[in-house]
Write a structure and sequence with these properties.
The complex is a heterodimer.
Chain A: H1 13-26, H2 31-40, E1 43-47, H3 54-59, E2 62-66, H4 89-98, E3 107-111, H5 115-127, E4 132-136, H6 144-164, H7 172-198, H8 205-214, H9 220-236, E5 246-251, H10 260-268, E6 271-275, H11 295-305, H12 322-331, E7 335-341, H13 345-360, E8 365-370, H14 378-394
Chain B: H1 2-35, E1 39-41, H2 49-54, E2 58-60, H3 62-71, H4 75-84, H5 93-103, E3 119-124, H6 129-140, E4 145-149, H7 160-182, H8 188-210, H9 225-233, H10 240-259, E5 264-265, E6 268-269, E7 275-280, H11 288-296, E8 300-305, H12 325-335, H13 342-355, E9 360-366, H14 370-373, H15 376-387, E10 391-396, H16 406-425
Parallel strand pairs in B: 1-2, 1-3, 3-4, 7-8, 7-9, 9-10
Antiparallel strand pairs in B: 5-6
Classes of the chains: A alpha/beta, B alpha/beta.
The structure holds iron/sulfur cluster (2 copies).
The site of one iron/sulfur cluster has 13 residues of chain B, from helix 6 and helix 14.
Amino acid sequence: MSTTLEATKDTSPLAKLISDCEELIRDTSLSTVQAWKERTGGIAIGFMPTYIPRELLHAQGVLPVGIMGAGDIEIIRGDAYYQSYICHIPRSTIELGLNGSLDCLDGMVFPAICDVIRNLSGMWKMMFPTKLVHYLDVPQDFHAEMGGEFYRHDLEALSAKLVEAGAKPLTSEALAESIRLYNENGRRVRALYDLRRREPWRVPTAELYVILRAGLILPVEEHSIMLDRFLELVQAEDDRTPMDQARVILTGSFCEQPPLGLIKTLERAGCYIVDDDFVQVSRWFKHDISEEGDPLGALVDAFLTDAFASPTRYIDEDEKGRELVERVQSSGAEGVLFCAPSFCDPALLDQPMETAAVTRAGIPWTAFKFSEDTGQFQVIREQAGTFADSIKLWS
Amino acid sequence: MSTTEETSAAKDQSQDRQKRMIAGHFDKLAESEERGEKCVYTYVPGNLTELLLSFDVNPVLPEINALQSGMRGLSKEYITLAEKEGHSEDVCTYVKCDIGMKRAGNIGPTGKRLPNPNLLLLSYTGCFTFLKWFELLREEYDCPVTMLHVPYQADGKITDEMRKYVVDQMKKKTIPALEKMTGKKFDIDRLRELLARSAKAEDDLVAVLESAKNKPSPIDAYFGGVYYIGPIFTAFRGTEDAVAYYRELREEVEERVRLGKGPIIPSGELKEEKYRLVVEGPPNWTSFRKFWDMFTDEGAVVVASTYTKVGGVYDDGFRHDPDRPLESLAEYCLGCYTNLNLPARVDKLAGYVKDYEADGLLINSVKSCNSFSAGQLMILREVENRTGVPGGFIESDLVDPRYFSAANIKNRLESYFQMIEQKRAQGVTR
Ligand code: SF4
Ligand code: SF4
């Protein structure tokens, strides 16, 4: 299956940028990361979805590299590690680990989002005993004096492990600068999401997605330049005009990612995706992280108080589904696509509560599942097409 | 054979006591609303039973309700009800069974309705699904919820920060929530008394589980083991009833050792111990008896299991400690089996194979439970490599009968026992 965008057939600068990003993503051997290491002498650390504080790694001279599975690569050894009823991303990640694709990484960080990734952290320890492995046990208590204090210790422990693996020690100055750089990056991402909400025909999700995925591999400074370039190019595309498509929010794909072909299929089936939860690390927070005061404290505080509602995060005092309904309303979306990976506990356990909330709010929705190596989109195309048609019919 | 009869009768005493205790608890729950008693829904791993009892609060454990529904043949209907409401076929069946049971009237195993919770105490230990489960229950009940986040032992140890985080949450959230709900002040001395009794019962439980090091083993530490852990994993840790039950059970088991007896099994007593197994993973509840028979028919005895450690690992020496009440409760939560990282689980299993002189490791991988199941194939290979004993792998589910294929499992078990025989013939295992 080719994942090349049709746009690459033209030779416009935008098409070139998108095809470069696609190539970057398809290069599972991470040759750009290897080149960065040779150029800078720094270390590179992989991380699994959804969120890790990349600012901290950056401040220690480390390149954070997001590993979001391996799409549809052939799984030769990974399947021997997992039963059929476990999602796909851990087996493709193991495949990458065992086939040498991740050799250039000096370690991996596994955030606490589900039992599969949690257990994978221990498997990684056994498989790669010489590499740094850190399970980032993000708090589910959001009080500064409890969850906050615990999280701060966790970040300090991670920082110390990075030093052991060859990174620079953490300084407040460096962390403050890294926060500033990631804030700049986050602002650009949010601006693109805003533009897509307003004028989705200008920013096709299949393009925005690959641009964000590139940000998981490139240094943040380079990625911010790429985001500027992308914004400039899409704004200059005069032939992109509104079509009669249904505006939808896509949710549930915060970890294992759908194939690019599936995203394109949804768009071609008549959906403008005006919001999503792909590559969430790039906009985990709703606002900038504070650039005032103690920077480590600011990272902690942002995690406790400013993160998006995610199925991987305890709802605490909040109301389930409230944020999704608000996102629908504020984006002018007309419906929700629940698009979760098969066997994804957090997404699928969350779904009945979220669907109940959108139903109460009178918002249409439909749900389907995927696997990162899904190759057939016909059924989903029909489902999404019917859904889009029904929205347009009744709106 | 008079000794056999005596032993069976002795066994029956503790079993009868256990049955009375559990049934009594469900009756108590059914009457709690009338009596004005408060109930807290919470989970087995990381339960704070002594703390709840110190406030005279009754614990209700949704997993126990689900497994009881599975054993009583009701889980299929409950799961179907939940799936009809939009719960995915892919997720943990305990959750769906619980939701379905609520829809069907929340009738407990003794046929009486279970009380609604006055508080949902979400002790998040060793499984991410717990968190979602309580979010789901929160939508069902109009009552306060309090979360106790227990960090994972990712690096194979309990750090001071982890312990402090859990203790701080207990002090600042859990205890105030219980005080508010009951209108009573926290009484640390009462908690200490309860914890002292827990430690006594834990000593006896460990002695019972470790009796399986004898040959023949006087117990089955998996199928029989689930009965033994019942009281201490549920509502009885810290009670005089639990102390008496474990004392009696220990005496019975020690008597069996003295007489050189094998374990009591559903059909009587196992006469010949042909295979000694270590088992990883929860059992299947919907065909529990049939599943157990597949082992006993072949003369297989489970000498150690990890499932009997989900509600607390005591064989490493941990005991609840009246001198460090909240700290030891925190360590208890942090130490539950599914809160251990994969290397620690491999160490534990390899240690069991060696210490209990087992012929093999068998994994029952349940579809429901990623906490247990994700990584089990690697655990199997690691333990095989380290110990040299053959590993076996079967798949089923906890309470969804659609995933219990008796013929398939039986075939696999038979092949597995043949493999052990072959290894024996080659002189690899005992
Ligand atoms: S896809 Fe879902 S279940 Fe699988 S690793 Fe990711 S969050 Fe966990
Ligand atoms: S996933 Fe496993 S540990 Fe978690 S609730 Fe289900 S059966 Fe229990």
